[in-house]
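Re: export button greyed out
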Amino acid sequence: MNIVVLIKQVPDTWSERTLSDGDKTLDRASSDAVLDEINERAVEEALKIKEAGDAEVTILTAGPDRATDAVRKALSMGADKAVHVNDDAIHGSDAVATAKVLAKAIGTVGDVDLVIAGNEATDGRSGAMAGMVGEVLGWPSLTHANELSVADGSATVKRETDEGTCDVTASLPAVVSVAEKINEPRYPSFKGIMAAKKKPVSTLGISDLGLDASEVGLAGSLVQVDSFAPRPPKSGGQKVEDEGDGGQKIAEFLVGQKLI
Amino acid sequence: MSEVLVLVDHVDGEIKKNTYEMLTAARRLGEPSAVVVGTPGTATKLAEGLAAHGAEKVYVAESDDAVNYLSTPQVDVLAALVERVSPPAVLIPAGADGREVAGRLAVRTNSGWLNDLVDIDGDRNGQHSIFGGAFTVQSHATTDTAIVSWRSGSIEVEEAAGAGTQETVEVPAIDAARSAKVSNRAPIVGGDRPELTEATVVVSGGRGVGSAENFEVVEKLADSLHAAVGASRAAVDSGYYPNQFQVGQTGKTVSPQLYLALGISGAIQHRAGMQTSKTIVAVNKDPEAPIFEIADFGIVGDLFSVAPQLTEEVGKRSS
Ligand SMILES: Cc1cc2nc3c(=O)[nH]c(=O)nc-3n(C[C@H](O)[C@H](O)[C@H](O)COP(=O)(O)OP(=O)(O)OC[C@H]3O[C@@H](n4cnc5c(N)ncnc54)[C@H](O)[C@@H]3O)c2cc1C
Ligand SMILES: Nc1ncnc2c1ncn2[C@@H]1O[C@H](COP(=O)(O)O)[C@@H](O)[C@H]1O
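Workaround output, generated via the alternate export path:
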């Protein structure tokens, strides 16, 4: 089995996140960057398949220099190698352009059987990359998996979303996206961290992918951001100690606000 | 006037409110055409509601495949219609299923995708609310068709009579090798409470609630206020309450008139899903809990005495 895991470095949700004034893209410099938690689960799921049988796990990310840290973390969990697409021209790509880049990069890995992504990133939250990459490749996508099994040339997932649950099956090659409840990702061991330093990472530019600068980045994007504004910060109101009448106090407040 | 496509959000023969919001928004851009993708017989049940909310046309794409495959039937039907009518926009619900349809459709038709819009004007300028409402962003698509994912609960629904003329369109044959087959479909049944993202009042419980049984305290207060029940991720992870009710960064985004947080510390990821609520009330034992930084009214106290008392007070006032 040849598995590719799509990972994304995102601003730490614990830190202040903002956009840059200049080109109105995510301001990656101003916040701490981490491997998105959902992608740790994607890596974990790939490693489980590897451990149960025989698989090679390749990490794939499209991101700036800094994303190397996220790649190393995924490798230290136990993935075998990585492809890091890093090109200034990609900066500012919209979801459609990103999907094209990722699909081309998957093509450089060889005969891929399975692509595993997160169901939704914590920064952009487009929540559709697995489906979009599948669309570009012409592969089925099995999304929002809370359980994944791969056997006999097909993948089956238990899918859970706000709308409901179902079982989904498709033949390989396919793209799967994992949901938050699928597993608990392992922590990299010291040995894993040391080993990761020696694992191969190939860095590719868009020309290596056969793409032109006009197809990606701000130039190639089909959506343009015109402006952004921070919401006025919300400040706390009244805070009172309960003296046995806390519930009544809230009721009075709600009556005052005409909420009850 | 140009046709604006709206993918109808429906479950069990009923239209979801989000559809009416999208029809309302679509009228700013042109003439709304509703697109029903469902099993045979679905459109008949929806026709009246769609016409009453301004649908001039209703494209009826009915086939058993509509529920037997994941997102592909919707993408195929919409892609064919985009090709045919060149709409300025296609509006699609921004839920998990809808975003998948929208993202794939954007790839398929090479159109700009405006994801998770909370507003759009007549010139197709969209507004998003990102990072849990910390920023609003304006953007537009540079392509002839904009694919729009619409966040439910964003605008007021306005009724308007439309002709609702039905036209049958084909659900293209599914290529099984390239599609994901669905079985054992079970829609999430919300029960008698309002849906979380649509509710005017939300009462949420966190780790402080302590157990699944204790969530009854949260539910009772919610019921007295005709509210939806929400939960923090810690409460969900601890098995106190089902996943689908999680509010926050990786759960649902809610923006009700009133949000009541019981035993929730107010971590940044929880706030990301509820901080745009109009009024926030918090009950927490810890006076330093960050939830108080954004609460309009906070009680430092034990939720197990405050919440039941509030339930009783609300009961007195409504009877
Ligand atoms: C990538 C990522 C995504 C995340 N996504 C989400 C998300 O979508 N939603 C979410 O909620 N969290 C999310 N989190 C988790 C978040 O960081 C917090 O861990 C979580 O919100 C804490 O939940 P809590 O407030 O219920 O629990 P705690 O932080 O443990 O707080 C419990 C609170 O209850 C109070 N309490 C205890 N007993 C009582 C009592 N009897 N009466 C009154 N008060 C009491 C305590 O004082 C405490 O403040 C995410 C984290 C990460 C890293
Ligand atoms: N630039 C990227 N590089 C690699 N994977 C990505 C990238 N963007 C998105 N993904 C994958 O797609 C998933 C969903 O992201 P999104 O659709 O942006 O919410 C992420 O969890 C990743 O697995």
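Residues A 13, 37, 122; B 206-208, 232-235, 246-251, 263-265, 267, 269-270, 273, 283-286, 289, 302-304 surround flavin-adenine dinucleotide (ligand 1) (CB under 6 Å). The button fix ships in the next patch.
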